[in-house]
Write a structure and sequence with these properties.
Layout (H helix, E strand, L loop, with lengths): L3 E3 L4 E8 L12 E2 L9 E2 L3 E6 L5 E9 L5 H10 L9 H10 L3 E12 L2 E10 L5 E11 L14 E5 L2 E6 L3 E9 L8 E4 L5 H5 L11 H7 L11 E2 L1 E4 L1 E5 L4 E9 L10 H19 L6 H16 L1 E7 H6 L23 E7 L12 H10 L3 H9 L15 H9 L16 E2 L2 E2 L6 E3 L7
Helix pairs in contact: 8-9
């Protein structure tokens, strides 16, 4: 939830929460599938994209997290019972008294870039209720699984370097350091390591190749099973575990920094960077808003454009590979060769694309980009290009395989600064374009938790 990744989603940053009432960690937004919802697919959460710049130098969103148990089963079964002539069964229909009485947390997720490869994240939870309530905040870092499919790719490794610091060295992104603390300067938060591997024992009843699987962090936190995380403090997935009981109206912030620099004081300039990026965002939108717009209209436009900038997804999809299957996995059913997309053997996706809504539209079509293009155009060239830049030639719609010469040419392209006429150090990315050889970070969703 509220995640960032690099252009090729080698590595991902995101957030999980727990209120000590839910049976699972809140790792992603919950919704109904097309067959469960009486009006089709439908997300059943309350979240708001509040701010964002075209270069993703500053991004902000809000998630309203109930303090009571989330009604997963109730939403599914009641929606299945209803017909298409009935209204949708919403979260507010179940938890209206709780929301009206403030039994929820406002969780703000903010990102700011100190530089192209130096990303800061601030997570702030506020108790809106009238009684104290516990909350667990777990910022995550993990590698997308590229090593389990039979192509001989090496397994990367995250490892604890020292208190509050995780180190990694990847063949694509090089050396990286992940620093975590809280507003009080907590020096050594618990670091929970596991592998980003499917729990085959739970799903299929066969032994796991490793005792540490992707739901190990959930089991350690929610079920208290510490044996499910790696005591050697290494793996391909890690979470820092912060917890606090918040008094009514109290706020609590967790700070994260992911950088290609081994900072000696990673949080010394943390607040200063956020203030500077917020100021830049204000200056940018001052050039976007028309002079005659009211303050309320300016807020609506700014949040609408922020939604377009937040709503992006990484697509790695080859129709040919999907039909033939991966070497390390069972052969796909023959029915695939008689179904949808079978004639699109030339389609090869490897890029971040903008979507109308990354929960309800997990795949793209012609309509979505057209709608995004029309809406983003109202935000000026910066927002329009960042949101709807066409897929890279030879990467998304290649006759055979991507031509590496095209990639080099794209990496030479320049991108506009965060604020028109005011270059800054964070001008390295615009949409799916990058200046440097190493990936630039921007928002993406991890609904598939790959």
């Amino acid at each position: 939830m509220g995640g960032f990744c690099n252009r090729f989603q080698n590595i991902c940053l995101a957030l999980a929460l727990w209120n000590e009432e839910d049976p699972i960690l809140k790792e992603r937004l919950f919704g109904l599938s097309g067959t469960q919802g009486n009006h089709g697919e439908d997300v059943k959460e309350y979240y708001f994209y509040l701010d964002g710049t075209p270069t993703h130098s500053y991004m902000k969103m809000l998630y309203k997290y109930p303090q009571v148990e989330y009604p997963y089963d109730g939403l599914v079964w009641e929606s299945l019972r209803r017909t298409r002539q009935d209204p949708e069964y919403e979260l507010l229909d179940v938890l209206r008294p709780d929301f009206e009485e403030g039994r929820y947390f406002d969780v703000f997720i903010e990102y700011a870039k100190a530089d192209q490869e130096d990303l800061l994240c601030r997570i702030t939870a506020i108790n809106r209720g009238e009684v104290p309530a516990p909350i667990h905040i777990l910022p995550h870092l993990w590698y997308r699984n590229t090593w389990s499919w039979g192509y001989g790719r090496p397994r990367p490794k995250l490892q604890k370097l020292r208190a509050g610091t995780v180190y990694t060295n990847h063949r694509h992104i090089g050396e990286r350091w992940w620093f975590v603390t809280d507003q009080d300067g907590l020096q050594d938060p618990p670091l929970l390591f596991t592998e980003n591997e499917t729990n085959y024992e739970r799903l299929f009843g066969v032994p796991n190749p490793s005792p540490y699987v992707k739901d190990g962090i959930h089991r350690a936190v929610v079920e208290g099973r510490r044996e499910c995380v790696n005591p050697s403090l290494e793996g391909t997935k890690v979470a820092a575990h912060f917890q606090r009981i918040l008094e009514p109206g109290e706020s609590y912030s967790v700070w994260v920094r992911f950088s290609d620099v081994q900072h000696t004081e990673p949080f010394g300039d943390f607040e200063e960077i956020f203030q500077h990026r917020i100021q830049e965002a204000d200056e940018f939108y001052a050039t976007v808003h028309r002079p005659e717009m009211t303050e309320d209209e300016r807020r609506v436009q700014r949040q609408a454009l922020a939604g377009l900038l937040w709503t992006k997804q990484f697509y790695h999809y080859s129709v040919e590979l999907w039909l033939q299957g991966d070497p390390g996995m069972p052969t796909p059913p023959a029915s695939r060769w008689h179904g949808r997309n079978v004639e699109w053997m030339h389609l090869y996706n490897l890029d971040v694309l903008s979507m109308p809504d990354k929960w309800e539209y997990p795949w793209y079509g012609r309509l979505g980009p057209c709608l995004s293009l029309r809406a983003a155009g109202n935000g000026g060239p910066g927002v329009g290009q960042a949101t709807t830049d066409p897929p890279a030639p030879g990467v998304v719609h290649a006759p055979q395989r991507p031509d590496p010469r095209l990639r080099v040419e794209l990496q030479r392209r320049e991108s506009p600064p965060c604020t028109p006429g005011r270059p800054t150090r964070c001008t390295g990315s615009i949409g799916s374009r990058a200046v440097s050889q190493t990936p630039i970070f921007w928002s993406a969703s991890f609904t598939s938790c790959c």
